[in-house]
Amino acid sequence: MTEFTSFAVALSVALVFFVTSCVAQDNQMEPEETEVWEPVPEKVEPGSSYGDPPSDAIVLFDGSDFSQWQHPDGSEVQWTLNDGAMTVKPGTGGIETKQDFGSVQLHIEWRAPEPEGGTGQDRGNSGVFLQDRYEVQVLDSYNNETYSNGMAGSIYKQHIPAVNAAKAPGEWQTYDIVFEAPVFNDDGTVAQPAYLTVFWNGIMIHHKAELKGPTVYIGHPEYEAYEGGAPISLQDHSHEVSFRNIWLRELD
User: Fold this and answer.
1) Potential cystine with 229: which of 57, 102, 108, 131 (Cβ 3.0-4.6 Å)?
2) CATH class (in words) of the domain with range 58-250
């Protein structure tokens, strides 16, 4: 037996002895020694059915008014309010929440209009922006071919959704989004990038997708350090896309 072989055998025996000792030590413990009683999680009442806001949610739109929203210049929202939904009024511009947010769990329902022509990006186009920077694409992707990282459910120009879960235009669809805001070092470098997990109509299409920076239409995304939160914003892309039942839970 060589010196190396002898060492390997001795090491294996030692490892077996160590593992056996650990198992024996665990078996000597009482169950109570591994019970953790503090902290006690806060009680949150869930919604009565899927999509209803839980008791700790901030309701951003319940169908009654635009009190939580404004145009970026601070003016009153010019979109259409009808039948519990708000609809983009093309040409009036996007809207954003009056309140700033960091990491959130966001629920939002949207509906693409019946197409009157147009294909690709020219059908039911809008977008949900987290911190006014990171877009989850809204688009009529029902039998409508376009580039995969620009279809509905895509993290625009960065991540392709795992599947196409689109419903037909005119039907209500849901996004449930978990957004983890980026963290920056004092020198402006990225300590932790932003992440997005997205469920589309109840189907997970992104799981902790790492973002390379804010959404850009041309070129590649790059982070620029910023402090604090920023609004949730909805895009006016010249199509009459509707939204309803918008709420979030702050995760910071």
Assistant:
1) 102
2) mainly beta
Among 222, 156, 214, 164, smallest CA distance to 189 is for 222
Model confidence at 4: pLDDT above 50: no
- Sign of dihedral through CA atoms 69, 71, 244, 150? negative
What residues form DSSP beta bridges with 82?
85
What is each CA distance from 93 to 60, 72, 146, 241, in whole angstroms?
19, 8, 24, 13
β-strands 104-111, 173-180 pairing: antiparallel
Q: Which of 75, 95, 244, 84 minimizes the C-alpha distance to 175?
A: 244
Q: What is each CA distance from 2 to 15, 221, 249, in whole angstroms?
A: 20, 57, 64
Residue 230 Cα to chain centre, angstroms: 15
The pLDDT of 192-197, averaged and rounded, is 98
DSSP letter at 3 equals: H
Instruction: Fill in the DSSP letter of residue 213.
Output: S
* Residues 125-142: tens digit of each pLDDT: 999 999 999 999 999 999
Its pTM surpasses 0.85: yes
